[in-house]
């Protein structure tokens, strides 16, 4: 099921839905993809059991499926993905000297 | 029948250091990479102590002097393998019942003298039962995937 979150854009769509119930247009407004692309991603998320949709007037509102183990897995997956990225950065950082200084890190161009 | 993967999550990464260093940073420097928003303590956590033996605990030391032992060390095999429990419930509070806790296995495998593959498996997630939504609420911005996006860009 987590394959449904293998695509970065789809993860972004899921993250937006997880932040609060929303419609396709609201999701599309916040992402550099078309509404039809968002709809496609939502369909995959729905088939994976991660989100469910309800009709509200003429709109279709998406929310995460609150009882689904798949959603807990998605949460844990996001947590560890983020943590391991930070871990990798920490592991590759040269061992810090015992005393700290106020020197800012070397700046990189934007 | 439920497959193992349906109740677990596997995340991998590769780091440019030998397994010994990777294991050390993971276990001795947890506070250097752990998301500071994901703690049980009210005050900021200044140190995460891993007691280096099976049966040891992972203890968060907060700036106000309080401590919180939120995990049991289940396997301690430096520099190759580390397993610890996740004694945290879905409201992000201590879970005292071991039958309702999940566990995390981390393996460190050299792919070259200076590179290590780190595979993390968080398993038995079903033991927590339902109610993940409270967890997401309890940790606020737990859904941010910025680091993921940066790592995969």
UniProtKB/TrEMBL annotation, chain B:
Query: Which superkingdom?
Result: Bacteria
Where is the Activator of Hsp90 ATPase homologue 1/2-like C-terminal domain positioned along the sequence? 17-131
Which Pfam family is one of this chain's hits? AHSA1
| Family per record | Belongs to the AHA1 family.
What's the protein name? Uncharacterized protein YndB with AHSA1/START domain
Organism for this UniProt entry: Lapillicoccus jejuensis
The taxonomy runs: Bacteria, Bacillati, Actinomycetota, Actinomycetes, Micrococcales
């Amino acid at each position: 099921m987590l394959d449904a979150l293998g695509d970065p854009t789809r993860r972004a769509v899921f993250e937006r839905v997880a932040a609060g119930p929303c419609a396709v247009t609201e999701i599309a407004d916040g992402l550099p993809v078309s509404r039809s692309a968002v709809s496609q991603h939502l369909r995959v998320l729905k088939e994976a059991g991660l989100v469910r949709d309800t009709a509200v007037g003429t709109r279709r509102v998406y929310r995460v499926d609150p009882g689904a183990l798949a959603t807990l897995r998605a949460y844990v997956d996001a947590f560890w993905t983020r943590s391991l990225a930070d871990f990798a950065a920490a592991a590759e950082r040269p061992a810090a000297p015992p005393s700290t200084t106020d020197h800012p890190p070397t700046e990189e161009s934007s | 029948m439920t497959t193992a993967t349906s109740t677990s999550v596997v995340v991998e990464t590769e780091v440019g250091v030998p397994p010994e260093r990777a294991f050390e940073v993971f276990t001795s420097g947890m506070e250097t990479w752990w998301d500071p928003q994901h703690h049980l303590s009210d005050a900021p956590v200044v140190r995460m102590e891993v007691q280096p033996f099976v049966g040891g605990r992972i203890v968060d030391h907060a700036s106000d002097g309080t401590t919180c032992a939120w995990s049991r060390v289940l396997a301690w095999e430096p520099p190759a393998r580390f397993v610890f429990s996740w004694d945290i419930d879905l409201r992000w509070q201590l879970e005292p019942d071991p039958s309702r806790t999940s566990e995390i296995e981390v393996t460190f495998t050299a792919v070259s003298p200076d590179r290590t593959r780190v595979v993390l498996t968080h398993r038995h997630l079903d033991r927590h039962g339902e109610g993940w939504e409270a967890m997401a609420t309890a940790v606020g911005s737990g859904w941010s995937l910025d680091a993921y996006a940066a790592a995969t860009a």
